[in-house]
Amino acid sequence: MRKHKLVNAGMREHQEFRPSLDELDLNLARSRRGNIIGIAAALVAIAAALLMESSPNVHPMVGSAVDALLLLIVILHTYSFTIHRAIKGSRNRVAQQLVIAVKHRLRADHLYDLSIVDPLTGLNNRRFGDQRLKQEVTRTQRNNQELAVLLLDLDGFKEINDQHGHAAGDLALREFSRCLRRAVRACDVPVRIGGDEFLVILPDCARENVDAILARVGSPTIEFNSQTIVIGYSIGRAHYQVADTAETLLERADKTLYEQKAARHRPNSPHPSVDFPVALLNTTDAGSVLLQ
Known about the structure:
The chain has helices spanning 2-54, 60-116, 126-143, 157-164, 166-183, 207-217, 246-264, and strands at 124-125, 147-155, 189-194, 197-203, 221-224, 227-230, 232-239. The protein has 292 residues and is α+β, with helices and mostly antiparallel strands. The protein has two domains: 2-116; 124-264, Reverse transcriptase/Diguanylate cyclase domain (Alpha-Beta Plaits, 2-Layer Sandwich), CATH 3.30.70. The chain has a five-stranded mixed sheet with strand order 1-3-4-2-7, sandwiched between helices. It has a two-stranded antiparallel sheet with strand order 5-6. A hairpin with a 2-residue loop joins β5 (221-224) and β6. The radius of gyration is 36 Å and the shape is rod-shaped.
């Protein structure tokens, strides 16, 4: 699907050059017609001048001057016609170069997409996520806006692979990514940072909006070999604070993520690992990962 979008974008970009090329072709055609008409008119004038020279009432010097002037006009029009042909050749070369440039642009866009997109889930990869998070931190500092990040880690993912095979694990990753993409806003950036770990960058997002996004992720499940597999996950979150960097934001989110994972595995924990997020009990960075 994305390849078709790139091709369509490339075609639109190429078509944007067509009006300019068409206009150039029209002007070249007009110039050519004008040169032909000018040369023809000059030849007719030379013929008329020759007839005038044969008339006894016209001084020979006048006829010679007219002949010289008309011959000069013919030479100028002939030279202009040569220039016209050179311009037409340049136009054709430019058109060919534009076609080649569009093909190179499409290839470069495709390679860029391959470098920033995770092929399994279709989400952006860690390389893109790192770059984008730094940009969002800079923008947040400049505009004094809010910024939140989420780190999500699937619970029991190794067990899914061990018990059902890697095909089930891949299906779980794709389904979780689909739910994540559906839950976020258009301006948000969901990223697969590796394995069963995900990052979501939430620009200009208030705490209550983060809660709503998490609620929309819901409780994903997959059907595999006639079995329903629940995709449990843990969440760490952090909100931008003054003087934060991309690294400090991720460190705080990572800390809350592993605090939640540790809490789920403690004896008598009220949040066992089979639970999955429905609503937040606390919206502070330190307590936002305690989910019911």
